[in-house]
Structure formats: C-alpha cells, structure tokens
Amino acid sequence: MAVAATGSSFHFLDNFQKHRAELAVKYTPTRFGRFSTIIETSLKGHEWQWHGGPPPNEIGERYSREDALAHRDDWKQLGKGFEGKVFKYQGNVIKVFSSERAPLRNCLPGSESRVRWPTEIPASLILGGPASEQRHPNISDFLPVIDYYLSPKAGDEDGDWHLVTPFLPLGNLGKLARHLRRSGISYAARELDIIFRPSVERLLEVLNGMHLDSGLCHDDVKLDNVFLGSSQLEQDTSELELSSAKEWILGDLGNVRERDHPYHSSDLWIHSGNLPDCRANDVLRLLKVYMTFLRESAADPAAFDKEFFQDSQPWSRLFWSVWEDAQNGRGLSASSALELSRETAHRPTDKPRENAYVNRQPREERHILWRVVAGNSVARQWAVKKTLRIGAGDAMARKWGLVLFLSVPRGACDVDTL
C-alpha cells in the first residue's frame, strides 16, 4: 500500500511539473512590433488608467468611459468564461478580464512596475487600431478598439482590465449557420459556397497581411471567432439578407503570437494536431471552419458528407487541395490558398472519385468492419467531423497543472520602452 501511494505521488508530481512547464511555454509573452504614434501617445499619457480616459470618439456619442462606469448596473452580460466576462452596453461590447484568472502574458510597455495586461489589448490595438482613426467601425479587417482601461483596486484585489469594441448585432458564423439551417430554405453546400466564397477569400487576404506585415499568427481561428461585420441592426432573423452577412471579421485576438514564439515548437502545440508553421496552421484552420460552416448551414448534411470526400464540388476541391499542401509540406500560405480558391471556384463539376472516401477518411475509421457496423452514412459523418475537428488541445495540461486552483503559470515578461 505504501509503495503504491509513493508511486502514485511521484506519478502525480511528474505530470504536474510536466504540464505546468508546457503551459508556461504556451503563456510566454507575445513579442509585438512597434505601436503606432497615436497608440504610443495614449500609453505615455496613461489613458489606460480608469480616471484618465479619452473624450468620446468618432464612433459616435454613444460611448464615454465616464458614462459607462457610472451605469455599470446597466451592462447586460453576454457570456463568461475562465478568463472573465463579456457585457453589452449601448452599442458596444465590454470585455472584462479577471485579474486573478486571466493569463496576463504581456507587460504594459513603459511600465516600470511591470503592470501586466491581456495580450488581446495590444493585439487589437495593432491589428484593429483605435476606433477614433476609423470612420466606419464595422468595416475593418479586425474589430477596432473603442477604449481600454484598468479599473481601480477594490480593497486588496487588483483592478480588472476592460476592452471595449463595437457590438456586432449579427453575431458570428455559428449563429449565421443556425439561422440558415432553420430559415426554411433548403440551401445546398454549392449554393452557399457561391454566396460566401468571397467572404472566406477576404479572410485569407486578412491572414496574409497579418502573417507578412505584422509577423503574427492568430492561433485561435474557429467558428465562433469569425464575426459578421455588417452594421445591419438586429431584427427578426427570418428577414436577414445574405448580402448583409458576407462581411466577415476575425475576432478574439487573445491567442495571437509571433511566428517564432516557443509555443509553436512545443510538444503541446504539435500533439494538439497543429502544423509546425503557425501561418499554415491558421490557413488550414480557416478552411476547416469554412467547411464546418457549410455543413452546419446546408439542409442535407449527409449529402455534404458524401461530397466532402469526393472531388465533385468546388468547395471540396478547395479543402483537399489546401489539406494536401499542408500534409505534404508544399509551403501552404494564405496567398497560395487564395490562388487555389480562385482556381477551383468556377471549375465545372467533375465526376466523383469513388475511392476518395476510403483514401481520405481518418485511418482508424477505414476498416470495413466499422463501416458495416455503423453504416456508411454514420461512418462518413464521424469521419467528416474528425477531419474538421479543431481544438486548443490543452485540456489535459490544464487538468494536471491544476489550473482551476492555481491559474495558468506566468513567467517574467520584458517591459518594452516607448
């Protein structure tokens, strides 16, 4: 009994230390490039302090920090997670990061006291930019920043960081897919691809600029992080015009990292099924998201599943062309995927490949016995979902690392000078 207890203790400690070390690598600070002059001026002026807020900006007179803080009880909670809560106030979204639980990886530039702030704030400032610089807040590659600040301390507890961005009433791709499925119109995947192919091509252009101009990877492209940027007011969803849902924006930049970030070469990254090059990984994930969106929007998912493994549709040809480039190490990039998309968009329908399903489904599900027991339709459905699966892959590390009790490990971060 004592030997077993000792062995169990060593096993636990070994896993605890290993997974805490993996998480420490994941939460290493992101290295950003230089901020714009207007952002540097704002940081030097300490406008990020709750009492040093800027005046209302060009987004409209709907927001001012003083008004938002004075009407804190009127904020409508939209959701919550491990890192904090999300609220809606007037025409804006206010994201509140928990000072105790949020992985504050980066240090505020110019802060001698090493004040930490959420990575999402500098990433949003660099990629989305201050909203005051934009005339049309909902027409952008990324969501613009209306405001950001650190709330005052409450007793012994530190203040919480707040990030304010425009509220997009049409929601994200997940919400759009549910609307299309329930709209009463039987959309085929090919019809949806004709409508939304320009939208995904636009996101490929956005990723290309993010990768090349900023040297950053998104690292968290998924269905719920692609938002509909139309300024159309939220009405009866049955009246939604598809033309109003074609402007897609990448959101949730809390996992943005530079290409050479140590996480991208870690066991945790590779064992999660990610590609070694984070840029190619962003592209492949975007195509998985697009395929998932088409499947969840189409009236007949079984027909999608059958066409997915064949070369009979432009959208399936696009996915497998990108997938094969990724698997064969042929230098997949956002620009190369964009070229593939334009090549496959209008090609005539080909004769389906009869053996495509067997060759392309996940290896463990190719066995004929599995297909006989489950049936071709169910086996194909499982194979499609497994091929398109996207996940953070750190659930086990969080469990063994006792993140629920100890939060995520945070190492030292350098303070950039301005």
From TrEMBL:
Boundaries of every Protein kinase domain copy: 72-370
Top-rank taxon of the source lineage equals Eukaryota
For this protein, the parts annotated as crossing the membrane are: none
Xref: InterPro entries = Kinase-like_dom_sf, Prot_kinase_dom, Ser/Thr_kinase_AS
Tell me which SUPFAM superfamilies the record gives: Protein kinase-like (PK-like)
Identify the PROSITE patterns for this entry: PROTEIN_KINASE_DOM, PROTEIN_KINASE_ST
The leader peptide range reads none
User: By what name is this protein known?
Assistant: Protein kinase domain-containing protein
Species for this entry: Bionectria ochroleuca
